Amino acid sequence: MRGLQGKRALVTGGAQGIGRACVEAFLSYGCSVVISDIDNETGLATVEELKAKGGDIYFIHGDMLDEKFCEEQVAFAIEKMGGIDFLINNAFSFIAAGLEATRNEWQRSLEVGPIGFAKMTQEVSKLMEQQGKGAIVNISSISAHIAQPGRWTYNAAKGAVNQLTKCTALDLAPMGIRVNSVSPGWIWTREVLKAAGYDQEKYEPIWGKYHMMRRCGQPEEVASACMFLCSDEASFITGTDLPVDGGYLGLGGEGIGEDAEYAGSN
């Protein structure tokens, strides 16, 4: 895709799952990448592995709950790469609490999530404005669009991400900065694998029924959408949300139906 080669990217929560898939995609285009993650051990291992493959990659450890850490990430990226062309706001707290949600659960959901996204956007926009160009992609979710049982915290936080995307896109457009989001469906990330008891083969056909394509997605498929939104191919796209959900959000209450004919999985 045009406009990615040799650029500089910052990916929060980049040590695993969708974040790591974005990191690997950026590296495949010859980009330099800084990743941040709350998991120090996994972050260091990820950087060591990808550096061994020739990747220009750096790691900074911290918690998005800490406002200073947001500032430190940007300063670190400038130190290591000289600037930031792309930001993937990915790090998020998967707290699925409903009626019994505590104030602390609400605070972490919102502060690590949309507030953390907003702070990162504030910090990188200063740099991108000087450069005259930049792209930000926020990782949202199908949960931003629908009701799910017992998930007030997560769904409300992701819903806020979608509205934040539109508002920041409006205000940053005069600076040459585009802001978009992606809404993944059920993706085989750490949390989904954990929920499946690490038995992907068993749960693929079960959870696949929630999607028109009768399967869950892979992190790499979300990363591809993020690369598109960062690239010059999306030069006239901002303030929008791109579902990467295998048709999840297009289904009604009937789902795909037990007897529905199906032509394939791709």
UniProtKB/TrEMBL annotation:
Gene3D superfamilies: NAD(P)-binding Rossmann-like Domain
Alphabetized InterPro entries for the sequence: NAD(P)-bd_dom_sf (IPR036291), Sc_DH/Rdtase_CS (IPR020904), SDR_fam (IPR002347)
GO MF, one annotated term: oxidoreductase activity
Residue stretches spanning the membrane: none
Keywords recorded for this protein, A-Z: Oxidoreductase
Pfam family, one: adh_short_C2
Entry superkingdom: Bacteria
Family label: Belongs to the short-chain dehydrogenases/reductases (SDR) family.
Protein name: SDR family oxidoreductase
